[in-house]
Amino acid sequence: MDAKIIDGKLVSASIREKIKEKTKAIKDKHSRVPGLAAVLVGEDPASQIYVRNKRKSCEDVGIYSEEHKLPASTTQDELLELINKLNNDKKINGILVQLPLPKHIDDSLILNSVSSEKDVDGFHPINAGYLFEGKPQFIPCTPHGIIKMLEFYDIDIEGKNAVVLGRSNIVGKPAAILLLQKNATVTICHSRTKNLEDVLKEADIIVAAIGRAHFVKKEMVKEGAIVIDVGINRLDTGKLAGDVDFEAVKKISGFITPVPGGVGPMTITMLLWNTLTSLEKSIS
Ligand code: NAP
């Protein structure tokens, strides 16, 4: 029997409904709405689309949003000055700096300059530290979305063998930490992992986040496994594909996320969630 499809749009819609309700309640009680500032440097087309989607998503749930589009020639000091201004702007609760930044700008320096209290991407070292400690303030949006999807479908994580494919700071590592905190037994694989197929075959839960189209094949997956596909890869045909060979793997797995329509919609939703949380913290 084919796997049950984990519908990211469905989970996302249910969380966005909650965000909308909570936002309205705060507005009625405190006359405040959450505010998100997106900072975009240069003309990266994918980033422009992301930022446009974020603006529309904010509008839908009642979150105030503003965009700061700067030319690729912007200096590091100019960007730091803008972030400093946003750090001190009372109507802004979340600051998102869209990556990639132009080469002459130091990514870490910029991300670390965002106030940890407005770091709705959860990339600041202070927030990474809180997450590591098991007392998260802002959880990186994509891994957070993965956990919310598993919870929505009542998928038990405790005691499961979870294999995370990829060790980036924004997806792989935080996903592994969150699964560990939910009492999974976690293995992290990367480009130097030996016998990757054997490790994957033991997994009850697979999180694939490597950016290689159709990398995870049916033969690597245990029957009934839960397969979460984070990858977004553009094929020569122009179509999007995940890191998992969806058509084949869905025939053997228990649950699976499609691409698009799986993890993707959850990422923006959890960004909205973090922006609301930031306002809630500031008024509590
Ligand atoms: P990244 O920073 O490029 O990291 C990729 C990771 O995959 C690295 O740890 C790398 O290992 C590992 N890797 C690469 N090739 C491998 C192979 N053949 N075997 C085993 N491991 C391999 O990527 P990322 O930012 O985490 O993103 C991963 C994917 O998720 C991309 O497709 C990205 O577009 C997508 N993504 C989607 C969302 C969403 O909202 N759905 C959000 C973020 C990212 P090493 O460390 O050894 O190099």
What ligands are attached or bound here? NADP nicotinamide-adenine-dinucleotide phosphate
CA-based shape: globular
Number of strands: 11
> Over the alpha carbons, how many angstroms does the gyration radius reach?
19 Å
- The span between the termini is 49 Å
Predict the CATH topology of the largest domain: Rossmann fold
The overall number of domains is 2
What is the level-2 CATH architecture name of the largest domain?
A: 3-Layer(aba) Sandwich
Determine the CATH superfamily of the largest domain: NAD(P)-binding Rossmann-like Domain
CATH class of the largest domain: Alpha Beta
Number of helices: 10
Q: Into which percentage range does the β-strand content fall?
A: 15-25%
Could you tell me the mean pLDDT? 96
Largest sheet: 6 strands, parallel
Q: Helices and strands: which structural class?
A: alpha/beta
Low-confidence stretches: none
- The H-and-E topology, N to C, reads as EHEHEHEHHHEHEHEEEEHEH
Helix content: 40-55%
